[in-house]
Amino acid sequence: MAEKITQYLHETPASQAAYSEAKNLIPGGVQGNIKYYAPYPLSFRSAAGAWMTDVDGHKYVDYLLSFGALILGHGHPVVKQALTDVWETYGTSSFGVPYPLEAAMVKKVCSLVPSIEQVRFTNSGLEATLLAIRLGMAYTRRPGIAKFAGHYHGGHEHVLVSTHPVVTSDGPIAKTSESLALPDYYVEHTEVLPFDDIDRCEALLRQHREEVGVVVVEPFQSGYIPVDRDFMQRLRLITQELGMVLLFDEVKTGFRIRLGGAQAFYGVRPDLTALGKVLGGGFPVGAVGGRQEILELASPERNLPNHEVVFHSGTFNGNPVSLLAGLRTLEFLETPGVYETLLDTTRQLRENIEQISAHYGLPVQTVGEGTIFNVVFPSDEVGRMSKPSDVIAAEMSARHRTLRKDLDFLLMKHGVFSKPYNRFSMSTAHDDKALASTLDAFEQSFAALGKQQS
Ligand SMILES: Cc1ncc(COP(=O)(O)O)c(C=O)c1O
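^ thats the input. predicted complex w/ pyridoxal-5'-phosphate below
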């Protein structure tokens, strides 16, 4: 590993210099804690389609895709056209007050995600889960929530509890604060559930039925780890019976697992859904959608005192840039054949990666669904992983962590970028050239990794 880091330092001096300057101006040199990796993150200067170029001039096939947001890749023509159209049609990037595109976009979202009857837009996924939780707690009039161990819902207080993956199949589940200065209230009023044991979930939810108003779940943990359909369907029934609002956080999975999101995959209708990322076509966005009866609690029309209305506002909510870029993106994904091809390309890429890794004696399993997957080195004992706890145990093992880190630095050296340890997101811009380059990089990386192991 030391050798790979030395090479990284040697080959990316401009990134290193950019970081040396940035870290004195920006905490950690990054605009978000999860964007940091040692010894320093690469700094980029431009992007086009499936490719990004770093400040040293190296080109990479991009599988981070702005943490999954860019499902059409960088600078897609329909998104560029949307920007031009915003200026030509509206003459402004923000009305700040109602205009007809808002309702048009809501209709599109409702047509793709049938559980959604009404929508409020926000500017990020974080704001979407925050508003959804507030709505759910208002609807149930209960003071707390339940979330799953290892699930991430953005950086606001109520969900900064137990976000790091832990194996929950045995023993008690620890509640952990994930930030300095997180008020005790949030840890105390958040129950933490195991993602692959529905009987334990049911027992915990029954025990806390008076306090828990909202059960929030990433329907695929970290966007790629699934549970059984049966688990999700039982979670729906239990929350219904106990009068809890079921909130699907589809910020990551929305329009990526299926066009209708993870809920289309599981065949489950949540009460509320949080959306973001893909919805904005590459611009800042979030949304809360769901049952009208719940969303209406934020309607100011009812002339109630403030404390009887769910507060929600935001200067740029529903701005034309994010909405038109998002609408055009969704329309493009609906073009016959586009989404099917994207799913097929992802499937093919996953198979090829698995085959290459096996050929070099270090078989990986690609875990995921739709257009997101991760590359995991299974532990020898478990073999092929089927449950979330198997995947998480493998990812936490020293074997995976060492091999994956080495693989990620080798892939960067050979022109593939996904940020170390991160999952892979696909885009329609990943054409034959980008895919051939990717497989070549995997071939060279696994060859080097195999040699290193023998
Ligand atoms: C499942 C999930 N929820 C919420 C968020 C927060 O979204 P944002 O980064 O837009 O605030 C993320 C971001 O990665 C996410 O993956």
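The chain has a mean pLDDT of 96.
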